[in-house]
Design goal:
mainly alpha; 68% helix; Hypothetical protein af1432
Length: 196
């Protein structure tokens, strides 16, 4: 982790101070899971660990502060994001990772930015962080979790599609609004699977 201010131990200590206990434990779970997946798929373990550590760095912020951070960075904010910290924290986190923690690697920043909604044409690192966030050891209520965890280390694209399918089904069943990026991501990977 050669980026400015990203010494592993210092970063972990700083995040521990800033996050609530449950969020911090989740963050460590995502980071460890991401590093394991990176080893499996030949991705940089250091980049995966760093992206995992920072993926929720804005999650505990007030929504208004997230909006301000994104607007100041010139990022577009959808209507769904304006009313949901659960969605907007990804974009705000990518800005904080760059401005506060000194991360300059575009792949790491994109992995943080799209870990909630995904996006069509995700990089390997983006897929790893998206999946690691869903399957880390503290997660236990998602449908198909044993199958998803197994697929995560066997077929990353099939795993990604299963998570997206389950997420969209859950959101539809609860009547929650669905971010258009999640729908586009599902359509992209669904069509790719059908072409195989």
């Amino acid at each position: 982790m050669a980026e400015k201010n990203t010494d592993r131990i210092s970063l972990v200590r700083e995040l521990e101070k800033e996050m609530g206990y449950k969020r911090f434990v989740h963050t460590l779970g995502v980071s460890g899971t991401a590093a394991s997946m990176a080893m499996c798929y030949g991705e940089s373990m250091e980049k995966a660990e760093l992206a995992g550590l920072l993926h929720d760095c804005a999650k505990c912020m007030d929504l208004r502060k997230m909006i301000k951070i994104c607007e100041n960075a010139g990022l577009e904010i959808s209507e769904q994001e304006r009313s949901s910290g659960a969605l907007l924290h990804s974009k705000a986190g990518s800005v904080l990772a760059r401005t506060r923690y000194g991360v300059q690697d575009a792949d790491i920043l994109n992995a943080i930015r799209y870990h909630t909604t995904g996006r069509p044409g995700m990089s390997l690192l983006e897929k790893i962080i998206f999946i690691a966030d869903y399957i880390e050891p503290g997660r236990n209520v998602a449908p198909d979790l044993p199958q998803v965890r197994s697929l995560a280390f066997e077929d990353i694209d099939a795993c990604l599609l299963l998570i997206l399918t389950d997420t969209l089904a859950y959101l539809e069943s609860t009547g929650a609004s669905i971010d258009p990026m999640t729908q586009r991501t599902w359509a992209y990977y669904h069509s790719r699977q059908e072409q195989q």
